[in-house]
Amino acid sequence: MLANYLIGLREGLEAALIVTILIAYVVKIGRRDVLPRIWAGVGLAVLLALLLGGILTFGTYGLSFAAQETIGGLLSIIATGLVTWMVFWMLRTARDLKGHLHGNIDKHLTGTGMGLVLVAFLAVGREGIETALFMWAAVQATGETTLPLVGASLGILTAVGLGALIYSGMLRINLSRFFTWTGAILIIVAAGVLSYGVHDLQEAGLLPGLNALAFNVSAVIPPDSWYGTLLKGTLNFSPATTWLEMFAWVAYAVPTLTLFILKSRQTRPSPSAVQPRTAQAVVAH
């Protein structure tokens, strides 16, 4: 549940910041008439995420076990790739996120501003797709449906609240530090999702070594115990791990986390925080 809360919080806060910047900018330049276009794009992005979640949840019913495991394994690998891209993208663009979005707004403000529907849809839809796919992978890995969804929902609600506080000027957040720490944690979570995806492909018969265990600590950490469930839900830890699963975890986590730490040190700006006092302050440089 904790990992899912973190996913919902991080992705939700990214989306909330994007919406905040879009709204604040058009308010500043006196184009309140295009606000409905922005909200239309946000609404369509939310519907897309929900539609994707429904397809992933119900689309595999009736398939054979091997087909379900194959789809689950491939989607887990895709989810890992998306999360990896997301944490590095935010690390690279967080400092100039406002400028990036302002440029897109300026290009689509001509006429009725219908292009802003696309701007908001693409900006928020990316976060929604990543959340839906990663959440589905987490549900498949843990075998639980309620707790992961509750955790992600609480994270998204927290992010919405934080976004509102930032917009109103009541909250000050060091976004660079926030995205650095959550990015490092999500890399560890993604390593577990990748490892579970490898296990799915082993069960589907596409990868070898299903019975070649690197370790089996089920007697010490029973899968149905509270601490076994906690480790499964947060890190996708499996008490019985194959050699290929362990290799995939190490081969992904070690170089990716090392590169992330090095990049974060190279791109770390001078200590600063988002400290808007009004809508205009959110977009002021």
Automatic annotation (TrEMBL):
Keywords: Membrane, Transmembrane, Transmembrane helix. InterPro entries: FTR1/Fip1/EfeU. GO terms for molecular function: ferrous iron transmembrane transporter activity. GO terms for cellular component: high-affinity iron permease complex. It is a multi-pass membrane protein. The chain crosses the membrane at residues 6-26, 38-59, 71-91, 112-139, 145-166, 178-198, 243-262. It is found in: Membrane. NCBIfam families: EfeU. Belongs to the oxidase-dependent Fe transporter (OFeT) (TC 9.A.10.1) family. This is High-affinity Fe2+/Pb2+ permease.
